[in-house]
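Priority: medium. Attachment 1 of 2:
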């Protein structure tokens, strides 16, 4: 299955915030959307899934496995979300329901899409918690989000997104709120799960160093427009746009240096 975004536009209260964005994610590919805050990368992801805020309207084309998603009724989109397309949000504290146990939240999509019983769904939740390396999964599925650390909450969010084995995962800055050590662990986990399941990946970030660890190709956005699209190796060694050059300077100002691209 493949994702094709063509001339995507998003208007919010009459103001154009995404202007002609196009990119493709072939089956099994790992593509990054990168740009500074306000560049439109997260809005692009929300438009793909039909999750734009009130007052926003999308145009252009978003095709998933040949099916047009722009204008698709929400009931049909809801069948795709979590089943064929999963999403991991930036801040799991707000993405997770504070009054539901972790296990119930992991199991929710499989109960909806696969029709599992409550007992079967709990067993599945434990298995998924184990798969994302949550400690003592049988106990942790009975806990609430506030009882988990930030890294554990993000692992739970990943388990929720992948429980139905979607063919595409959209990860919207999933490591931004984590410290460097936990960030690295989450990136390694996500990459291994994507590779194991043969999923396609759209990874959203403002950090070229992070993107180099998980994606093979990058699409650079500024003010809602694509300013450069190239393999990650090219973005790291020969960026053509001033925006990408600035992102590279920011990345090399850390302990990270170009090289070792997957």
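Attachment 2 of 2:
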């Amino acid at each position: 299955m493949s994702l094709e975004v063509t001339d995507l536009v998003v208007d919010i209260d009459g103001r154009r915030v995404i202007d002609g964005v196009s990119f493709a994610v072939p089956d099994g590919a790992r593509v990054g959307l990168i740009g500074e805050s306000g560049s439109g990368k997260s809005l692009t992801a929300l438009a793909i899934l039909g999750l734009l805020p009130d007052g926003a309207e999308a145009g252009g084309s978003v095709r998933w496995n040949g099916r047009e998603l722009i204008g698709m009724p929400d009931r049909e989109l809801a069948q795709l979300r979590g089943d064929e397309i999963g999403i991991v949000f930036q801040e799991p504290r707000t993405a997770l329901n504070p009054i539901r146990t972790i296990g119930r939240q992991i199991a929710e999509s499989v109960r909806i899409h696969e029709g599992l019983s409550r007992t079967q769904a709990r067993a599945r939740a434990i298995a998924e918690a184990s798969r994302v390396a949550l400690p003592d999964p049988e106990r942790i599925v009975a806990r609430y989000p506030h009882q988990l650390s930030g890294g554990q909450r993000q692992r739970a969010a990943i388990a929720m997104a992948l429980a139905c084995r979607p063919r595409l995962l959209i990860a919207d800055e999933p490591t931004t709120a984590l410290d460097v050590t936990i960030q690295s662990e989450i990136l390694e986990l996500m990459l291994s799960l994507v590779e194991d399941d043969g999923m396609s990946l759209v990874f959203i970030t403002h950090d070229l160093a992070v993107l180099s660890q998980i994606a093979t190709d990058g699409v650079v956005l500024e003010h809602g427009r694509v300013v450069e699209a190239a393999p990650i190796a090219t973005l790291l060694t020969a960026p053509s746009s001033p925006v990408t050059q600035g992102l590279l300077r920011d990345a090399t100002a850390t302990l990270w240096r170009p090289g070792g691209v997957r």
